[in-house]
Amino acid sequence: MQRSFYYWKTVFNLSPKENETLAQLNVQQLYVKFFDVDWDEATRAANPVAKSIFQQKPPSHLTITPVVFITQEPLQKLDSQGLKVLAKNISSLLSSMSTNDSLHLSSEVQLDCDWTVNTKNQYFFLLNQLRKEPFFQNKKVSATIRLHQLKFITQNGVPPVDKGLLMCYNMGNLRHPQTKNSIIEEEELKKYIKNLEEYPLPLDIALPIFDWYILFEGNTYKGLVRDFQPSAEDAQRDRVLFQRDTIINGYRFKSDQWLRHETSDPVVVRACAERISKKLKAKEVTVILYHLDQNNLSKYNQNELESFYNSFR
């Protein structure tokens, strides 16, 4: 079992707490998002955005696996010729970003895309084109697999890659006001993994260690609120109701709006990890925690983080 974290911030600059955690947990590998691919309406082209800047040299013992996040729009807008050009551009940018001498790259590259039934063919075509490109030669190619893509395999298909990364979070209805926790719930997970053993790709596993707030106005979903810093009193509540218009940390809230706080409870994360581990057929598995950030880490002790990994021994 290989221990890893996702690093999902644009500027690579590990804090002392993040470095300390990597050392304590003996983590030797990071999956680092190098850039996103999104659609630019002005140029009518798929362009890279949010490119990573390595402000700090990664520790020499860390192996870096590049991750590219691809949004839906390029798949919806591009024809086959456009997708071939996109594959060349992705490969070229990865090559140029990887010339950094301070990066010790792994033999894997990962594509992250929440493809749908309607974009399946375009995404799989893009994956096949990528495998022909120079940067991808002699590389193991992996793709993220959402739980709905696992459950509805007949409709969603199986991506043409060497292995998958099953994302064991974001499994509930985020927009429904009665949802208790859309990040992770064991009962919800059970609905998706009944046929996990039959999935034709070897699977690595990603587990959540993040929290967030969901904003509602009455029963109407208004959006995600990240990096919200509640008062000490509100931090103990699952729901925060605003009784008057207020501004907190730059966020404007109207009277009668409310926030639902969702967390990755360590007991639940461990229970889900143990349930999944019993159904995995891969002998070698990488377990990735999402994601490496000192605020996320502050909510767990070392034993809890260790237990997430050790569930897959």
CATH fold topology of the largest domain: TIM Barrel
Rg computed from alpha carbons, rounded to a whole number of angstroms:
20 Å
Spatial arrangement of strands, main beta sheet: 1-3-6-7-8-9-10-17
Q: How far apart are the termini?
A: 6 Å
What's the average pLDDT?
A: 95
How many distinct helices? 10
Q: What fraction of the residues are assigned to beta strands by DSSP?
A: 25-35%
Give the CATH superfamily of the largest domain: Glycosidases
Share of helical residues: 25-40%
- General form: globular
The CATH architecture classification of the largest domain is: Alpha-Beta Barrel
The biggest beta sheet reads:
8 strands, parallel, barrel
Q: Provide the number of structural domains.
A: 2
Question: Which class best fits the helix and strand makeup?
Answer: alpha/beta
Poorly predicted spans: none
CATH class of the largest domain: Alpha Beta
What is the number of strand segments? 17
Query: Which sequence of SSEs, written as H and E, runs from N to C?
Result: EEHEEEEHHEHEHHEHEEEEEEEHEHH
